[in-house]
Write a structure and sequence with these properties.
alpha+beta; 22% helix; three-stranded antiparallel beta sheet; six-stranded mixed beta sheet; 165 residues
């Protein structure tokens, strides 16, 4: 992803289109300020260059509520823990590319690819918005797929984990 561009017409300032310039993915909707900051500014900072998180933290604070909680692959994650995860990704020079974006009532669903020299994963998040900030989320990343690879179907039963030899 080279960056995100905002496309709009002079006739309709309410309608916003965001285009990922590397793959021409178009996101078209009436975005809330929280959604627009998340897509056009925060995710755009994941551009593949290593960054000091303190320079970007103000954007994180603009979009994540102080009481933010997430369930990532079944594990509870607080705002402070998420901040540390994001700081690590910025220090690794991670790159984010939006695969799919969809708005719901009081929520957004975003599927994006996050890659760096150590990881290449697809992340799906359903984020709930309250008071124009992300308040809670449910997230799956590709490590969930790795977990499912350890599952085997035998007849009527589902076996989890590695098989005993």
């Amino acid at each position: 992803m080279i960056g995100l561009e905002i496309l709009g017409s002079a006739e309709d300032k309410q309608q916003t289109q965001l285009v990922c310039s590397s793959d021409e993915t178009v996101i078209s909707s009436n975005l809330t300020p929280c959604e627009e900051i998340f897509i056009s500014e925060y995710l755009a900072e994941f551009d593949g260059t290593k960054k000091n998180y303190e320079e970007i933290e103000y954007l994180f604070e603009l979009i994540y509520d102080d009481e933010y909680t997430d369930i990532i692959n079944g594990k509870h994650v607080t705002k402070d823990q998420l901040r540390k995860i994001h700081a690590k990704h910025f220090s690794l020079g991670s790159r984010a590319s939006i695969v799919h974006f969809e708005r719901g009532v009081g929520s957004v669903f975003v599927n994006y690819r996050l890659s760096n020299d150590k990881n290449d994963m697809f992340i799906q998040s359903n984020l709930y918005i309250e008071n124009n900030k992300f308040r809670r989320a449910r997230t799956l990343d590709d490590s969930f797929g790795k977990f499912l690879q350890g599952c085997a179907y035998k007849g009527q039963a589902l076996t989890f984990g590695k098989r005993k030899q």
